[in-house]
Amino acid sequence: MTTNTVDLVDYDEVLEKFDPVMGLEVHVELHTNTKMFCGCPTTFGGEPNTQVCPTCLGLPGALPVVNKIGVESAIRIGLALNCEIAEWCRFARKNYFYPDQPKNFQTSQYDEPIAFNGYLDVELDDGEIFRVEIERAHMEEDTGKSLHVGGADGRIHGADYSLLDYNRAGVPLIEIVTKTIEGTGERAPEVARAYVTALRDLLRALDVSDVRMDQGSMRCDVNLSLMPKGATVFGTRSETKNVNSLRSVERAVRYEMSRHAGVLLSGGSVVQETRHFDESDGSTRSGRLKETSEDYRYFPEPDLVPVAPSREWVEELRGTLPELPWQMRNRVQKEWNLSDAELRDLVNAGALDLIAATVKAGAPSGEARSWWVAYLTQQANTQGVDLADLAITPAQVARVIALVAAGDLTNKLARQVVDGVLAGEGEPDAVVESRGLKVVSDDGALLAAIDEALAAQPDVADKIRDGKVAAAGAIVGAVMKTTKGQADAKRVRELIIQRCS
Amino acid sequence: MSIIRQTAADLAAKIHSGELSSVEVTQAHLDRIAEVDSSVHAFLHVNAEGALKAAKAVDDDIAAGKAPASPLAGVPLALKDVFTTKDMPTTCGSKMLEGWRPPYDATLTRKLREAGIVILGKTNMDEFAMGSSTENSAYGPTRNPWDLDRIPGGSGGGSSAALAAFEAPLSIGTDTGGSIRQPGAVTGTVGVKPTYGGVSRYGLVAFSSSLDQGGPCARTVLDAALLHEIIGGHDPLDSTSIDAPVPAVVEAARLGAQGDLTGVRVGVVREFSGDGYAGGVERAFQAAVSQLKALGAEVIEVSCPNFVYALPAYYLIAPSECSSNLARFDAMRYGLRVADDGAHSAEEVMSLTREAGFGAEVKRRIMLGTYALSAGYYDAYYGSAQKVRTLITQDFTKAFEQVDVLVSPTTPTTAFKIGERADDPMAMYLADLCTIPSNLAGNAGMSVPCGLSDEDGLPVGLQIMAPAMADDRMYRVAAAYEAAAGGVIERAPQL
Q: A303 in contact with B at a CB cutoff of 8 Å?
């Protein structure tokens, strides 16, 4: 084990002396209904070991069968990443022992990935486009989860005992691996973040995954090394595992750059190892040593037949690709009349795709924008999560907007409905129902409240009767108070004026 | 004739006509097991209660006038302990799985049950099907009913010995390198390795996934064919199972039994004779070839030059796959767990359990395979072996351009003595010299009794090999030969 007592080097100094080289590996859980090689459900959060069968538990004798939707998703991802799609490829076994790995091998792909040689154009904060080359995208299965109980740090070493949950074992994963990313200079952390963001948006547009980094349905491993300015040989890399938010990706790159530089400038050499990212302080700490590269003894999976997607099928799938994020950006910029700066603000806030999806779900673009950039951004900031990770979907936002448009909710009530959805109380309509948030649209009830308010404030009533319509505000306020805000203020005002004319 | 000495086809006919009940037939076999299995040790587990219950269900159906669920409904069978069974333990002959009760039935088990076949129990085998003598069973060896001091072949020695000792008229084996055919040969019974993918592997505890194949064992060719059609066919749960109708093996066996092989071209594999082949085996084989000629077959010699590399290629591929397949036995989810005393880490528990649970031959193969797949050795070992596999497949393809079936002795010698080769793995491995090529190519192969050796009076096996999904060809030839030469089982000593 190495220690964390290394001196971190100031970022500017790192860049004076070194060039960063990155490689990013992203694991994406597909949201297919069933697992990659059996019929078990893939839903998140079930009671431990309730979504298992002989195959995903690795029971003796059980065999895998490939999930066709999994293959289809992999091909669509490959196509969207401008990859070539293999005419013939196989699964392979990656052999290593670990208790949460039911067969002690992972069914994966090795030297025959389904998709390879692609790229993703990534937009940086200032609008510059950076092309990230994609090495490969391949299919594999997820492992189960270990919960290490007792011990100092929740890791297997030193734990009193461990619990195993195999619900996740066999959930389809796509691993997307970049080629070496060079030439970013000081923008390495930003490029890393922008790439993962772009990939997340792309996968969301493809509707192949929930891409929830907080729930682990999208996970990023950051490989980083430094080489002295002008050098041509790469330095030794570290691999920081499971970096679980966009912000963390950026911080992990930045931290590792400073740490590597500290090691190198003090005359040491970087150890090739796996590191863990610590969300609390943005540092990384040493995990497994990788003195020799691990020998996974890959060989072709004999229990499965090769995957040979016909060219017709691939073209058919190409035809199903939805509008991809950059295509969508160009379109909405025109349709919504956005300046470059406005568009970039929406993109940077992580709001653009959400707004577009809300519009797609039937909401007018103005309302959709206003909800996401104002109230929901506020809520995300309060919760300290990315906008996309809020527990509300674009469809739900669109429904709230529709309820407002129909006069069933006021904007104020609508915010309470959104609060309810965010608090996990269900769909908007259910929240309206359970919290009793419907607008009082019964004119009779409103008129009664109005009459009561007019009687209580006769001087105001007289002013209105004299044509001083602005005075109606006080009565509106009083009515809103008696209806606990559940009245449509506009309608109340109309009724007051009718009453006083 | 006593119940236990009858063929499965005859028993089925009598059960279906009401002349015998399945319960009677089942009870007769259970009695026989009680009588002789203490000396033969073919069974690891006998499920008398379950068997009688299944038999009763068949009898009830027949009494109610229902058509039999299959041509073998009501007939008892012995199942190799490598197929999962919900109602019986599945141990694979290993301490690792002692007492393990699977929560699911193998597809083959399910098909047997649906066909009304009565499963008497689970038969002994070399641990995880690794061996050629059944001496590698963690539960003690099975003995050959022809001579209790000799091995019954392996890995499926229990399934073949059960037939030869008249403890069951039918049994199931699995053949990875000869584990159905070689036991069939040395016990004077019929053993069939269907085309790879012809019988589902779902629920067959894997030794070597690309080679393992379940198949029927019986005392006659027709009985094997009837069982073959019941267990064969596509299974959506096994990706490597072939999506095509089962070859018409029963029809072929009936045709063959008429005794005419005119127009059938039989190739004798030149490479499978000479050094290492017992004289008694070679003479019995030559007599069989003459018999085939007399039945009208055209016999020619063919050369399959790469067959000599089959054994080394097999001992790289099979251990490689086994090293990965057996990795799951880690004490975490099922089976043996030792040293779980709070003082040992998970890694140590895994390691100590594997040390305690696996026998020497299994460990030898896991180590061989782990080595062969290691970085830097993969190309030289596993990679080269795969190339040899392709060459062997090409040898078969060329041969089958000239002939319809190939023949050879099933195994170079008759049954050897228990303990004789236990310390000499290479000598043990030679028992599968002639059977391995069919596994590597994924073709069909079977062993049919071929008289007794004039040296030791023990059974010799005639191996008949056919192209993939042409299993019917070998049944035709086997049935014709059987009809002409007669079986040998009646000459087995009384136990």
A: yes
User: How many domains are there within chain A?
Assistant: 3
A456: confidence class by pLDDT, cuts 50, 70, 90: confident
Looking at the structure, do residues A482 and A411 belong to the same domain, yes or no? no
State how far the Cα of A413 lies from the Cα of B223, in Å rounded to an integer: 79
Domain enclosing residue A112, as ranges = 11-312
Q: Are A274 and A331 members of one domain? A: no
E strand or H helix at A273? strand A273-278
Inter-CA distances, A348 with A190, A242, B108, B302, Å: 12, 23, 58, 74
- Cβ-defined contact of A60 to B328 (cutoff 8 Å): yes
Min Cα–Cα distance to chain B from A243, Å: 26
* Model confidence band, residue A237 (pLDDT cutoffs 50, 70, 90): very high
Instruction: Tell me which residue in A61, A64, A102 faces B204 most closely, judged by beta carbons.
Output: A61
Residues in chain B: 495
- B355 by Cβ neighbours in 10 Å (0-12 / 13-18 / 19+) ranks as exposed
Q: Name the residue among B205, B209, B347 with its Cβ closest to that of A60.
A: B205
Which domains, from first to last, does chain B contain?
3-267+289-299+401-491 (3.90.1300.10)
* Closest-CA residue of chain A to B378: A297
Cβ neighbours of A93 in B, within 8 Å: 324
Distance between CA atoms of residues B413 and A198, nearest Å: 68
Q: Are residues A99 and B345, on separate chains, in Cβ contact within 8 Å?
A: no
Span B140-171, pLDDT tens digits: 999 999 999 999 999 999 999 999 999 999 99
pTM for the predicted model, two decimal places: 0.86
| ipTM for this prediction | 0.96
How far is Cα A197 from Cα A349, in angstroms, rounded to an integer?
11
- Asked if pLDDT for residue B55 goes beyond 60, the answer is yes
Instruction: Assess contact for B227 and B8: CB atoms under 8 A.
Output: yes
Q: Which residue of A has its CA nearest to B349?
A: A99
Distance from CA of A156 to the nearest CA of B (A): 8
Q: Residue A344 — very low, low, confident or very high, per pLDDT cuts 50/70/90?
A: confident
Residues of B recognised as catalytic: 80, 155, 179
For B270-312, how does the pLDDT look when each residue is reduced to its tens digit (9 = 90+)? Answer: 999 988 999 999 999 999 999 999 999 999 999 999 999 999 9
- Same domain assignment for residues A374 and A272: no
A173 lies in a domain? yes
Chains A, B: CB contacts within 8 A come to 104
Q: Are residues A306 and A178 in the same domain?
A: yes
Average per-residue pLDDT for chain B: 97
* Helix, strand or coil, per DSSP, at residue B187: helix
Chain A residues with CB under 8 Å of B370 CB are 297
Q: Are A321 and A79 in contact (CB under 8 A)?
A: yes
B93 pLDDT tier (thresholds 50, 70, 90) = very high
Q: Alpha helix (H) ranges present in B20-156?
A: 22-40, 48-63, 107-114
Same domain, A114 and A217: yes
CA of B391 to nearest chain A CA: how many angstroms apart? 19
One domain for residues A342 and A491? no
CB A326 within 8 A of CB A121: yes
A4 is a domain residue: no
Q: What is the CATH number of the domain that holds A457?
A: 1.10.10.410
Residue A289: the pLDDT is 61
Is residue A6 included in any domain, yes or no?
A: no
Query: A223 vs chain B: nearest CA distance in angstroms?
Result: 22
Beta-carbon separation of B90 and A104 below 8 A = no
Q: Which of B237, B239, B333 sits opposite A57 (nearest CB)?
A: B333
Same domain for A259 and A154: yes
